Amino acid sequence: MELSGLPQISLPMPWHTREWAQLQKRLVADQLPHALLLIGGQSTGKSQFALALSRLLLCTQADSAVNCGRCHACDLSASGNHGDFRWVQPADKSRVIKIEQVRDLVRFTNKTAGFGLRKVIVLAPAENMNTNAFNALLKSLEEPAKDTYLILVCHRLHGVPSTIRSRCQILRFATPHKDACLDWLDKTTENREHSQRALSLADGLPLRAHQLYCDGAGEEFAAGRLGLRALLDGNVTVLQAAALWSEIDIDIFLVQLAKELQRLLGSLRLDQLRTTRGRSVFRLLDEIVRLQQAVSAGANPSKQVAIEALLSNLYRMLGTGPLNDNIQTHIEGEKVAYE
User: Fold this and answer.
1) Are the CB atoms for 318 and 326 separated by under 8 Å?
2) pTM of this prediction exceeds 0.90
3) Tens digit of pLDDT for each residue in 239-258?
4) Digit-coded pLDDT (tens) for 138-170
5) Phi/psi of residue 37, nearest 5 degrees
6) Is the Cβ–Cβ distance between 122 and 54 less than 8 Å?
7) For the purposes of burial, counting CB atoms within 10 Å of the CB of 58, is it exposed (0-12), middle (13-18) or buried (19 or more)?
């Protein structure tokens, strides 16, 4: 997240009013936990929530539910120069929050707040810390410094060790309602049809829809998704389908491939799921999850090689026609075990 050139006031996303009100009550009652773990789907605004909360905690004249936007502390946090604030994320092109970064923030927690109020640390995404970084963070959670708040932003809860989770107050964020997303997107697109198309392409994830629209990448993404479905239907080759994803990030490809396979599985009957080919779809989903975890942990595979390898595995399942048809043809030839 870019932390300079911010507006004077940072707001949570409009669909997070309930979660914001919960924390506001606890803050007013001086009962805000020293460590929060924000968990929810990617591209739904958790980082924006963490930023708004951080700036509220740093504000020296907060007399409402958000930072005032007028005090010197708000000026500093808007410019990215507030000395009591650290936003820790993977540096440069790395996908990993490294131990050196966590050691630096541990030293930061031992300092006195420069404005005499609070120190605030955000780690995002928290599951991108390596094992050594998690271990280094643990002591700060076990022995929290006075008036110091840690906010961990997390897309995958299982990616955070239980030793860390157990020492944080977990705040869960549901996928926002479609109407709230469209109302927010309309402010950018100024056209409800454009908002609907972007949100549909992004599978209901509002920040991804916003990015697709602003980057003008909607058509490329739509073509890539249609290519996956055409491959599942046996209508295009692996290379043709892979070429449609050449300009799109591998993370987005992995999410979309998983969604298409889940969509396929949802259309199958139980006897179809129990065939050899049906079970192979589950194995491919497991392979996608492993690759996602490896990428999050810092692996840097060749995007095109990884995409072609996954699609080749999928193609081998297809046989001579659509996967759904091929699963059906194998039912009669297999003994389906009902256990």
Assistant:
1) yes
2) no
3) 999 999 988 888 889 989 99
4) 988 988 888 899 999 998 888 899 999 999 999
5) -120, 110
6) yes
7) buried
